[in-house]
Amino acid sequence: MKSFAFIVNPVTIKQLKNSWPALKLVPDFLLAPSLKNLPPFKVLAIKKIRSVQGKEISGYFIISTRLPKETEELREEGVIDRIVGAHHIAERLEAKILGIDARASMLTYKGYSIIKKLKIPFTTGSAFTAWSIFEAIYRIVRVKKLNLKEYTLAVINATNPVGKLCTRKLADYAGKIIVTSPHRDRLEYLKETIANVSPVEVIIEEDANNAVRNANIVINMNDSCKQTFAIGELKPDTILCNLASNNMMNRVKFRQDITVIKTGLVKLPFLDKAGINSELPKNIILASLAETMLLSLEDRFINYSFGEDINPDKLEEIADIAMQHGFEVWLPEAPVL
Predict the structure, then answer these.
(1) Are residues 165 and 206 in the same domain?
(2) What is the mean pLDDT of residues 256-267?
(3) What is this structure's pTM?
(4) Which of 131, 139, 261, 270 is deepest in the core (most CB within 10 A)?
C-alpha cells in the first residue's frame, strides 16, 4: 500500500500531549521547559485512508516536539535541518511523499533550499489550503446572497504563500482587495502580478487595523507574522475567515455582529480517524494534510506546493483531484448543496 508522511507541529502543549499520550502524565509547567530535551520527533502510523474510488493509502505522522514559539527561535539553518531530519525518518519508513502544514509559512519561504536537501517529494499543502479558503468565501457569500463584486476583501499577511494564492484567486471575484504584510517589496510585486491579469483595485496597507476597518471580508493568516489587528476595528457584518490558531477564535467570541469561519479544513469521504487534533471532528483534517494524501492517492509523487510563487493553476488542479476522491472542503456554516 502506498504511504505518505506528514510533519505535525503541535500549536499548544495540549495538542502535543494528545499526539504523545505518555506526556499526559507530565504537568505543563514541567513539560514546557523540557521540550528541548525530548527526542526531536515522534512517529504515529495511520493504517488506512480510503477514497470513493476504492483506492487506499497509509501514512505516518512525524510529530515535532517543538512548539511554534520554539521553532521561530531557530535560525533558518535550524528550521531546514528539522525538516531534513523528518525527511530522513520518512525515507526510512519508505514514504513516497512528505507534507507539512501550510500554516507553518515561515518554513515555506525556504522551499527551494529545503528541496535541494530532500530525496523524496515535498509539499506544504498551500495549494489546497488556499483553495479551501476561496471555496469557503464563495460558499458563505452564496448562502448570505451577497455580491462579492460589491465588497472589499482584506488579506492579512498576503505575502504568505497561502495568502498570495488566495489574493490572486479572489482577484477575479472581489470588488477591491486590501493587502497587508511586513514585507512592502513583496506586496508591490503581488500588486503588479495581479494588475497584469485582473482589473481589480489592489491597495497596499501597512496598518492591519486600517485594512480590516475598511473591509467587508477579512482573511486572517496572522500567526506567521508580527502584524495584528484589534477585534474592535472589524465592521459590523464583517465575514472573518480565520486560518490562524484558536487564539483568534477566542478573541472574537464577544463579537456577535460578525461571521467567523474557521478555514483550511477538509472532510474525508469516510469516517476515518486520520487526525491528531482532538479539537476537530473525527473525519476532519487540515487541507495541507489532505493535499499530501491526495497526491499519494494519485501517484503524484512530485514536489507540489513549495516556495513563494506557487502556480495558481494548482488550486484548480488539486480541487479537481479532491472531488474525484470524495474529499470535501468542510464549512458547516455553508454546506455543499
Answers:
(1) yes
(2) 90
(3) 0.90
(4) 131
